Amino acid sequence: MQQFRRLCSSSASAAIFTPQSKLREWIRRFEQASVFEPQTSAQLIISHVFGKKMISQLSHEETLMKISAEENARIDKLCSKRLSHIPIQYIIGEWDFRNCSLKMKPPIFIPRPETESLVDLVNLELERSQKLNFRLLEVGCGSGAISLSILREHVEKQEKSTSKPSNQLLEVIAIDVNEEAVNLTKLNSSILHLSNQLTVLNSSVEKFESTRKFDAIVSNPPYIPSTEMNALQKEIINHESSLAFDGGKDGFDVIRQIISFADRSLVKDGWMWMEVDDSHPATIANILPHRYQLDQVERDLFDVERFVKLVKIR
Amino acid sequence: MLLLRMIETPLKHSTVAVSTAIRKASNQNISTKKVDTKSFGQFCQHLSRVRVRCEEQNEIYQWPKFLLHELGGDRNAALLKLSTITPRCDEYTNSLIELEQLEEIKSEDPELLQMIDEERSEMQQRMEEEREEIVDHLIQDVDLEDCEAILLEIIPGVGGLEASLFAMELFNTYNNYLFNHGYTFDPVTFVTNEAGGLQTASVMCTPGDAFRLLRHESGTHRVQRVPQTEARGRIHTSTASVAVIPKYAAKFDELKTRDIKKHFSRPSGPGGQKVNTTNSQVQLIHTPTGISVRCSETRVLGDNLQLALRELTCKVHQLQSSAIASQINSARYQHLTLRSRSDKIRTYNYPQDRITDHRFHISTRGVTSHLSGSTAFHEYMSRIDAEWNESEKREILQQLMQED
């Protein structure tokens, strides 16, 4: 072991770094610092420095090429951040959600892979709907992941379909209580050329007033019960805004607010698809006013009951 | 018809020169590769008989096993298909009768003999074409027809580091080739080792007609050269194993969800907002067969899941199709579909700068040029395909002709 270390330090003094050597170096350091997902972390950061999303996109020759002093410094700078358990998505400033590449900025909530299925559920509803003008509200848009995916895929579908004589006009309004989130969503919206299809507003759902009613609501609202907040990963507790996931005592605080909003601004027979805590599908019926029906419960990719569809029946 | 009238007026001439001419003419059309006319004629009659009996006896008719399978396996569809082929068979049989009549004409008249010769040449030419047509309709490239995508897999074999480097070179060859020919490919797995060699790779490639040439790549490829790491300049032999697996359109059912176990890298538990993960690796296991597939190609979990599912479906179908094949034991499957990965099919010899295919005994020069996936590569593969096509059809035809 001692001999091995000596060899390593001698190569360090020779100061020839390659993506491969930096990878090895930082995986080791992440492991020693008990960083969550040490290998993936190092791979993602280093690929990013070289303009790639995945380490497999670097050819073998490229991983053996000597890197510049700037590249070396950049790798070290970004990887050091990871030692403080800063989420990768904040370090590289971006992340993928379905087929959108989105900018990420602390402390705005980072989209989770589970939420990708929520978009599928909404897409299905839009397809089934006979309405020519559809008004959709997203509550708590964060980086804009949900709204932007829905819009983008809606546009792509319309471009592909030549048979439909009348295309559905989809209007999406996204709100977030955090002004920074609103700005980030607007930025991502610009990058994806969807600015003129998405209206982003800074407001809580409680205070939100709308002159026109909505046909549907989609949301990944804060849903973690307050008591469970402390047990979360350092990445989340220390770096993501708790506004995005603190759901109050039973996790239903914001969900209740959304339902109140639906009282005044959702059309009759309108639907709400929401991502919820894994404990909620079993208990949400208890908090639902009689005007609303729990129509459907769906599982996420990890087979956890994750999504609920509420319909306003009266 | 002109010929028949001429027979009435024979002329006197030397017979030697004429008989040489006749021999020459008939030699032109004899090829050791071709099935002889008479046997094929009998085969045509056999096919017509099958059709007649099948139509007469309906359900109780016992189809010749190989023929039924070659026609798709379904009795009704097979009869339908056969009915489109038998008119040509009858034409061939008639042409054969006429040819035989022609050959029986005894004459000393050189002009007449000349005309007989020409007529015979033409007839044989036409019959060649008719035979090709019949064979083409009867023996279709079913493997290619239904193929909508292929899964290309490469793993190193014997030879340690050098084998992994060679495997990588092969991967790049196919990569370049597919790219240059406008095929889309999604890497499903791609694992390299520290030296830049390939540990394993699998790529899903569309459209399925890539199968036409690439199917002959399945098997073990052998390289003979001085490795980069070799200090003393000795030649080493290493191998890499390639598998090209076709994915068929809806021939088999989609895999049942309950038969697939999903494994993700993130820790199990509630998930959702409670977890921040960046590891998007997916592993799928098909429990009935035990086939497992892993994918971490993209940052999007859902996409990796789709890729893994496609690869898994492909492999399971491949297994199912070979299981069915071994049950049927038909002419076609008797010598392949699931070519054993360990069959040594090709050698790349650097010192001699030669590539040799051991199945078809086709060689070419220019290893480096070949491995760049360029036109030389395409030409070589086309030659192999043409040869395979010939021998494959011949074998299947022989099998069918031996049946009664």
How would you summarize what this structure contains?
The complex is a heterodimer of chains A (314) and B (404). Chain A is an alpha/beta fold.
Features:
A: 314 residues; alpha/beta; two-stranded antiparallel ribbon; 12 helices; B: 404 residues; alpha+beta; eight-stranded mixed beta sheet; 11 strands; flat
Structure description:
- The complex is a heterodimer of chains A (314) and B (404).
- Chain A is of the alpha/beta class and 314 residues long.
- Helices cover 42% and strands 19% of the residues of chain A.
- In chain A, the strands form two sheets. Chain A has a seven-stranded mixed sheet, with helices on both faces. Chain A has a two-stranded antiparallel sheet with strand order 1-2.
- In chain A, helix 2 (19-32) runs antiparallel to helix 3, helix 2 (19-32) runs parallel beside helix 5 (69-83) and helix 3 (38-49) packs antiparallel against helix 5 (69-83).
- Chain A is globular, with a radius of gyration of 23 Å.
- By secondary structure, chain B is α+β, with helices and mostly antiparallel strands.
- Chain B contains 13 helices and eleven strands.
- The radius of gyration of chain B is 28 Å and the shape is flat.
- The two termini of chain B are 36 Å apart.
- Classes of the chains: A alpha/beta (314), B alpha+beta (404).
- The A-B interface holds A 20, 36-37, 40-41, 44, 53-54, 56, 60-61, 63-64, 87-89, 95-99, 109-110, 112-114, 116-117, 220, 222-224, 228, 232-233, 235-236, 240, 244-245, 275, 277-278, 300-304, 306 and B 168, 187, 190, 192, 194, 196, 262, 264-266, 268, 270-280, 296-302, 305.
